[in-house]
Write the structure tokens for this entry.
Amino acid sequence: MKLTFQQAEKLLKGNQKFEHFAFAMLMTRLRERYAKNTAPVTVESSVEEINAFLSKYEAVMADDCAIIKNI
């Protein structure tokens, strides 16, 4: 699963709850960073981090991936 710029921006602005603890922590950190700096470069770096995480752990994150796909 690859996240797009638009999907990442919606995730960063949203308040979705995720089951996978490590992903929820990642999103908390990225949302705090985005709140301080909403520049496109912040979203781009977030896309890279989220995609790297998802490429490693997508198999165990079925519920969370369903949330992300519906964004």
In short: The chain has a mean pLDDT of 92. The radius of gyration is 11 Å. Residues 12 and 25 are 13 Å apart (CA to CA).
